[in-house]
Design a protein that fits this description.
Elements lengths: L1 E9 L3 H8 L5 H4 L4 E8 L8 E8 L2 E13 L3 E6 L8 E12 L2 E11 L3 H37 L12
Antiparallel strand pairs: 1-7, 2-3, 3-4, 4-5, 5-6, 6-7
Length: 167
């Protein structure tokens, strides 16, 4: 398995950062670059075993992605994994961790374990450009997350903003 980690700081309190990330329907708000996510269904209440059905879109190419929540300990972390054969990777495990720096700032840490698709060809591609693409994707997500949460915090709005329903 390949490993990747990305961390960033948001100028918002831990409870707001947790509430935003704990809502899978917020994912499209931070996937605003070349890779877009659409959330179709979320098993509620969120708990280990809950499934989230999404579509990942890169340009005109779409791929269904079915993940399962593996662990959840509010407000410290949650972890999800791709259900075998139901996503763009051979394997995918993602841990989302949150640490209060102080009353107004939170560190977000994304830890990935993944196996690229396409066998040896995917491994070569990942070795050549995978790290660059992952860093770019997560930097874009961090920027969008900061923009969203910090604008909500400055307006005193709820962290997830207007509620969406993904059933």
């Amino acid at each position: 398995m390949r490993h990747f980690e990305y961390a960033f700081v948001v100028n918002a309190p831990l409870d707001q950062v947790w509430a935003f990330h704990d809502d899978p329907t917020a994912l499209p708000k931070v996937m605003t670059g070349a890779v877009k996510m659409h959330v179709h269904h979320v098993d509620r209440p969120l708990q280990p075993g809950s499934r989230i059905l999404m579509t990942m879109q890169i340009g005109p190419v779409r791929r269904r992605w079915n993940v399962r929540l593996r662990a959840r300990e509010a407000p410290r972390f949650f972890a999800d994994e791709q259900i075998e054969g139901e996503g763009p990777f051979r394997a995918w495990r993602h841990t989302h961790a949150f640490e209060a720096i102080d009353a107004h700032r939170t560190r977000v840490i994304d830890r990935l374990e993944y196996e690229p698709p396409l066998g040896w060809l995917g491994k070569i591609g990942d070795a050549l450009i995978g790290g660059i693409l992952m860093r770019s994707l997560f930097a874009s997500r961090a920027k969008a997350t900061r923009r969203w949460l910090e604008s909500q915090a400055s307006r005193g709005a709820s962290p997830a903003g207007a509620e969406q329903s993904a059933q």
